[in-house]
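Protein modeling request. Please complete all fields; requests missing the sequence field cannot be processed.
Requester role: graduate student
Desired output: 3D structure, token encoding
Chains: 1
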Amino acid sequence: MLKRGDSLISNENSIKIIGLKKTHPLFKKIEARLESLYEKSPANSLIRLKIEPRKSSYLVELKINSYNNVFNSKKASHELFQAFLLAKEDIEIQLLDWKRKRFSQELEKSITTGTYSVA
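Delivered output (119 residues):
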């Protein structure tokens, strides 16, 4: 298992996985998907994945902290990768909603102030 503070990506301390050994067969698949999720996240975000084995299932908590936002999801499944994918999908929906709100507000401001230009 990884300990708190163990970083696995060159983005120094940007992505942390707790509860999954680097030697686990799914580690690389999960790592790649977290890197992809990091690219969709607000600048300077911290992604934390916590995997908690239960008697007959896995509880996965995926959390992204950024300067002004927190995106959080907890999902459970009998299969580890399934639980992870459910949490990741939930976070992606939250990120998409955040982007829609953020950029539509910026566009509205630029239109009302007359600073919007079409190339």
